[in-house]
Amino acid sequence: MKWADLTETELRDKLPESNGNFQLVCSYLNLLPVAATVKDALGRVLYANRVAMKLYGRKPNEILGSTIDRILQLDEPAIIRDIRRVEKRVLSSGRAEIHFQQLGSRVHPVRHSVLKFPFFDSDGDPVLVSLIFPTTHKQLET
């Protein structure tokens, strides 16, 4: 299945029946105590664990199929450009990267350490896995 060829609606419909490798990775990501997302090459979220949904303050139907600019609703285009630039570089190089990502506004910036790495599903399509480590654990307390 070519993720990038799917519309947002088709993407939401296909996710539950996606291939076994993808489902297996998502089941592992769901066990992590940090925010984790999986995105396609266009930057659309294919999966977000419960910690990511809490971090973003969104429900699954508000995240799945959406891009980071729609999820974060930032008025800082430079932040979105930086995030997408790193994502494209990781997918094209096939190498993991750790970087800092700022969320929030200039007035209330929140920086996170983010590990991004590519994963290839059983069809050979690349997806991007992001593990988002908060600057403080208090942000993720339940």
Furnish the topology, listing elements before pairings:
Layout: H1 8-14, H2 20-29, E1 35-39, E2 45-48, H3 50-56, H4 60-63, H5 68-72, H6 77-93, E3 97-104, E4 109-120, E5 126-133
Antiparallel strand pairs: 1-2, 1-5, 3-4, 4-5
Fold and architecture overview:
- It is a single chain.
- The protein has 142 residues and is α+β, with helices and mostly antiparallel strands.
- The protein has a single domain (3-140), classed as PAS domain (Beta-Lactamase, 2-Layer Sandwich).
- The protein contains six helices and five strands.
- It has helices spanning 8-14, 20-29, 50-56, 60-63, 68-72, 77-93, and strands at residues 35-39, 45-48, 97-104, 109-120, 126-133.
- It has a five-stranded antiparallel sheet, with helices on both faces.
- The longest helix has 17 residues, at 77-93.
- It is globular, with a radius of gyration of 14 Å.
